[in-house]
Amino acid sequence: MTELLLRALEGTNPLGFLAALGTFDATARSSRRATLRWTDDIVPQPMLGGIEDTEDLLEVLDEDRLSWARSLVLRYPETKPLADAKPDEHLLQGWFENAYRMDRAVDADMLCSIVAEGAFDRARKAKPTHLHFTAGQQQFLEMVRTLATDVNKDMLKEAIDGPWEYKSPLPSLSWDARGERLYAVRATNPSGEKRLGVPGADWLAFRGLIFYPVSSVDGSLRTTACNRKWKRSAFRWPLWSVPASRDVVWSLVGDRNLISERSAHAQRRIQPRDLAARGILRVMEAPIRRSDQGGYGSFSGPETLVSA
Q: How far apart are CA 48 and CA 243, in angstroms?
């Protein structure tokens, strides 16, 4: 099977990893026999199977983007779409009921990765995924809608083929672990400036969120591959060397033996030969930090928990 190297997506960066998953999901849902694996390099890069070339892939990704621009996930309710993924209980129920009536099963899958039924804050607003890093005037769904309508093929090409130039003022979902380092070397304080980003990567990473469903356990939010606590959490993900189908990738990224909070420290006791036997190169972890009020989030520097 032909494989395409997505050279700009780094497996050690949460944004690059999620964007690779989003690229893969869009390809798999386009009736291609898509596979995904990672190179065994210091900085692993994704190898996407089932696609002819970059131009073919860009066509697939752009068609997928356009299909989401008017999606119920991003446009509910139709008269006044939600700005953020924090509806009250009544709106949340209607959102899910309508999503499950739609012909596109992918809408329900994505909604289940954004917000959980039964998990509410003190104001009885729904609690979104632990990967919801926006707050204040940064409204998550509003930002994603902008990406869905304004990202173009050139931006998608920058995302997958590079280089990442960080020149666009379009919304950033703050999943780039390199972001803090980029701004740390500035000679002046950039806090009053609008952060520039790589919108094609942010859009594809949003698409990759579909592999991380959320749930409610006794009214408490659970997000696949994340710690339970909100302010001090962490996100974990595996990198694998064997071409995997969508169902296999789904099982890998949610494998509790690899990514659960309980097993995080036990990772160091996993024998490298056991990982190698499963075709897993390493398991990564990136701490999640939030502001004192529990709003704005960001990733701290990722580290390798265990490698084959």
A: 8
pLDDT in tens, 193-218: 677 999 999 999 999 999 999 999 99
Tally of domains within the chain: 1
Domain that holds residue 185: 3-68+141-307
Buried b (16+ CB within 10 A) or exposed e, 27-53: bbbbebebbbbbbeeeebbbbbbbbee
Q: Please, are residues 65 and 148 in contact by the beta-carbon 8 Å criterion?
A: yes
Is 116 inside a domain boundary?
no
Q: Which tokens hold the place of 122?
A: 């003190």
Is the entire prediction scored with pTM above 0.85? yes
Look-up of token digits 């989030």:
297
Q: CB neighbours (10 Å) of residue 264?
A: 16
Nearest-10 Cα torsion for 273, 275, 276, 277: 90
